Amino acid sequence: MKYDYLIVGAGLFGAVFAQQAKAQGKAVLVIDKRNHIAGNVYTEKVEGINCHKYGAHIFHTNNEKVWNYLQQFAVFNRFTNSPVANYKGELYSLPFNMYTFNQMWGTVTPDEAKAKIDEQRKEITGIPKNLEEQAISLVGRDIYEKLIKGYTEKQWGRDCKELPAFIIKRLPVRLTFDNNYFNALYQGIPVGGYTKMVQNMLDGIEVRLGVDYLANKAEYDAMAKTVVYTGPIDAYFNYALGYLEYRSVRFENEIIDKPNFQGNAAVNYTDRETPWTRIIEHKWFEFGKDEENNDLPMTVISREYSSEWKIGDEPYYPVNDEKNSKVYENYRSLAQKERNVIFGGRLGEYKYYDMDQVILAALNCVAEVNN
Ligand code: UDP
Q1: Alpha carbons 155 and 316: distance in angstroms, whole number
Q2: What span, in angstroms and rounded, lies between the C-alpha atoms of 165 and 352?
Q3: What pTM, to 2 d.p., does this model score?
Q4: What is the pLDDT of residues 179-198, one digit of tens each?
Q5: Which of 40, 197, 207, 290 has its CA 20 to 30 A from that of 157?
Q6: What lines the ligand 1 site, CB under 6 Å?
């Protein structure tokens, strides 16, 4: 066999695995169905702006190992994610912090804000059973109604009572004036875009694009000792145990002939009626400047529309509710019996991974198999 590893998918899991395996002297081939590398972190230059083609990706981590690992492939800027929520024209700071509480209730001190939240969270007794209960118990009903309910129901196409509590725990709640969306020691955007970073990871590695592994599985399997599969796990098994549900996203991109559309990288539309969930203005990930530090005259925006995934769509978010988790467990059992195949990444493991988590998972995985 020509290769030690055939890596299916040139996203973060695949690229990290490939980079590490190659560094250990293995023969590696990376293939991807798309005609570009970098999976969903792919960035593309439009009007001099690195646009996040598959949605906003803001790198953040508390893991020093992951952060140090990435420094070999990119220089990160000092971007800090501070989205703004627009509820019917009322603007609120995110994540939930002293600015948000002041905008919502007029509270000024942490004690006042805490008293207000405590009064509202009493509604929930016992351990929160779903996203709605979790949200109210974290920040109270007012914030839930204006900043969470509509957005979440658009994003997931499901009632907040039917969604797992962990999804809302991704967002911090703070009694300080801190608009940083992430509780992370390290944060930033790779200067020049994610595509360049992944390109650097794949330096010297054979990559074939626009090829469909599942359509020619036997042929590809014969090329390598081990397959690293990062596509949807249910598609791998030809949906034999049923379909896993995913959320997909449709982007409406617009080039606008003015320098500033919304004054921020991300504005979330948290009401139920606005059809999009958020608008991304890509230039602000790199402070509105080009490489020579000149102001960019144009801007590019993307409206995000969330939809239920169906065959032919791009899967973005696994729906980790009870029903799907059971189906996934069945697929996982099948996967464990599959010889010489490793399943990894957001789609291969059906997990709402952040970028740093997926990188760590790939680093751990490659270390384990090459031991
Ligand atoms: N969320 C919300 N309102 C917001 C932003 C987020 O209710 O303005 C909820 C929503 O349920 C979302 C979850 O928090 O799915 C996680 O948000 P995050 O920003 O982590 O989502 P991602 O960027 O991965 O789409």
Answers
A1: 11
A2: 13
A3: 0.96
A4: 999 999 999 999 999 999 99
A5: 40
A6: 85, 94, 147-148, 151-152, 155, 167-168, 170-171, 268, 270
